[in-house]
């Protein structure tokens, strides 16, 4: 007669072997093994233990703090570790707050059309200047990133994906040589803009600044924002920006000066990205759903 | 044994043990933080009365619950180290010892529960400390600030404390003995 493979004795041996493995595994593994059942138990127990815990604590208000038994050296060391940890947490909190602010700014922006866009947060792993400035990010095709996708920092346009692998991607920045951007220059207002000027800007050699030509009569002022405009008559050599890039901020007008060749009729507008491209640590990739 | 009764008692006692820990944990001295283990008393009560298979299952479950609710150290200021295994194995060995000893005692007596809680409790804690101590000897990452001597002192105090609490808890468990139906399950042992 065939006997069952799983007998109570074998099951017990399996359980004991598992417990032994869990007891002697590396801490990270052991903690990750115990985390799911522990969370489950906490979820079941917490509603009942919290009131008891509060009652017990209120009854024993004179409980000596645990640090009272430690030596001064241990206390100082513990204090140093806690302060260091608190600083780490504050840094992480600040970064997280910045990211939340940027993402909510993007979501609430009326100029951007992000209804069917997934925002993929990515860390910048490398910045490369030179003739063709690029960023490397730590997200790739595994995260749904593909060539041509828009990369932003808040509502600011940073560039687009130029190369992609499974776990990383290269970003061609907006100030890459030869880039021509159609922009609408608007005053920085949340309501309807009183006027707008459409110009074409291009990066200055070896810098993050863009320049554009405008007429002397155009009402452009320092502080105005340059928003990307999707032009239909894009040069054949230029890859058209994706639709979701429309309205993103290319930069801010820093200065309006007379054009050297035609100072009476034309002006030169200098536009600077609001984020220093080489100082970026995190960006967002706009992935269509 | 009625497992429903077991789970109800386990839930109630675990809630009391965890929730009231700030009230009855020793606040100072070398036995700092020593607190009674109600699950230990429950485990001993079952070990004295239930069939062998039930004892083994119940002790493994109770030991695992002790493991999961009592961190043995801290990796970072707020990250607790929880090892699933040492207490479960300790409770398992304690259950085997209790089944050996129970032929020598009066099962219905509260004094038996107190004495067994103390004796088997010490054995369980010793086994638990030895398992964690053996882990500390391995070249893997040791648990920070974990010392065998202080652990033994603290855990021995917890066992004494548990034995004292077993007097009151024993009366309650004794009253509930009929609900457990220990003797109805004899002969249907899981492990024979």
Short description:
The complex is a heterodimer of chains A (289) and B (192). Chain A is α+β, with helices and mostly antiparallel strands.
Instruction: Give helix and strand order of chain B, one letter per element, not per position.
Output: HHHHEEHHHH
> First CA to last CA of chain A: what distance?
58 Å
Kindly state the percentage of residues in helix of chain A. 25-40%
Task: Give the CA-based shape of chain A.
Answer: elongated
State the largest interface: A-B, 44 and 50 residues
What structural category do the secondary elements of chain A indicate? alpha+beta
Residues in helices of chain B, as a percent range = 55-70%
Helix count, DSSP H or I runs of 4 or more residues of chain A: 3
Q: What overall geometry of chain B do the principal axes of the alpha carbons give?
A: globular
Number of strands of chain A: 12
* Low-confidence region ranges of chain A: none
Any low-confidence stretches of chain B, pLDDT <50, length ≥5? 187-192
DSSP strand count of chain B: 2
Characterization of this structure:
The complex is a heterodimer of chains A (about 290) and B (about 190). By secondary structure, chain A is α+β, with helices and mostly antiparallel strands. Chain A has three helices and twelve strands; from the N terminus they run H-H-H-E-E-E-E-E-E-E-E-E-E-E-E. In chain A, the strands form two sheets. Chain A has a six-stranded antiparallel beta barrel with strand order 1-2-5-4-3-12. In chain A, strands 6-7-8-11-10-9 form a six-stranded antiparallel beta barrel. In chain A, strand 7 (about 195-205) and strand 8 (about 210-215) form a beta hairpin. The model of chain A has no long low-confidence stretch (mean pLDDT about 80). Chain B is built from eight helices and two strands. Chain B has helices at about 5-20, 20-25, 40-50, 50-70, 85-100, 110-135, 150-175, 175-180, and strands spanning about 75, 80. In chain B, helix 3 crosses helix 5 (about 85-100), helix 5 (about 85-100) runs antiparallel to helix 6 and helix 6 runs antiparallel to helix 7. The chains are: A alpha+beta (about 290), B mainly alpha (about 190). Chains A and B meet through helix 1, helix 2 and helix 3 of A and helix 1, helix 2, helix 4, helix 5 and helix 6 of B.
